[in-house]
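hey m, so remember when u said the tokens were messed up on ur end? i reran from scratch. heres the input so u can diff it against urs
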Amino acid sequence: MNITDTEVVVSSGTLITGDPYPEERIDVVYTWVDGTNPKFKEQFRTYWHDALSVPPESISSHRFRNNDELKYSLRSLEAFAPWIDSIYIVTNGDIPHWLDTSPSRISIITHDEIFLDKSYLPTFNSNAIELQLHRIPNLSRRFLYFNDDVFLGRAISRDDFITESGGQYIYFQKNLLRSKTDRGPIHDRAYAYTQKVINMLWGKKHSRLLPAHVPQLYDKEILTYLESLIPEEFQKTSSHRFRSADDLVLRVLYFFFLIESYKGDKIHETVTLNWGSNDYSFVTLKNDLLEVWKAFFHIRLSRPRFFCINDDLGDSDSCYLISAALRLFLRLYFPHPSSFEKRI
């Protein structure tokens, strides 16, 4: 399927022409979970038997560890992107204890509000949750999606995401997208599986880069179209209670749809980011406190537009010390509470 610059996908799966973004507002969506919550732990144990058929890394506790990243990501958002409109936090029903939900700009959205098939809940699969985001009520046509471990390091504007022609910037990092579905970590296999689906839809490419861990701009009408294009794949991933090797990965599917399916004038522009640059830092926490602090110090000096701090520590003895270092760094970088925090 080809879509020209002036054609817009609507919820019925048909096309209309015209300007899809007049006087555009941009909302933000977060996904969040607190793995220490007793209710979450009880649900997790209840469905533990499901985990017997998936790799252990899909149920590792670090996947659900809460280091208060959301608090500091919201601080970065309010400080550096005040032009953002509404903020939606998608959860399993939990609400962060520090979050003040009284401001009209912020809303809690539960999984059962956006999953069409409630039998897939509870879910512990972020890939499944991300495929439902376009069903958030009253969400802006285009919205920014943040993982809670993604932060703004300095002031940004709409121009960091939207081109002069009304298209969008698509950010990549230099890593090649994996192509082997039968080996490697579960997330790499899901990347490869999504690339396999893309190959069937729009043709095989010699190589593709991995989308960067930055705020991601989506058009919810295009997401609706993609779901209508491959409904079985959306449904299959949505049904996976835990991460699976044959999951669709939203950002991979969506961004390559924009690049490879759209024809005519190129209104979307790709940007390749370098790790550790003034634009982008990606840090994977390691069991090495000195190396972790070196990475944090570099972020503090370079103040990149975007940075992501990925918790991949597992359950080692030192993970608590590293997590404490992370919280201290975030508190130093973003010392001022946002308007979304309760005043104690």
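this time it looks ok to me. The longest strand covers residues 169-176. if urs says something different then somethings off w ur setup not the seq
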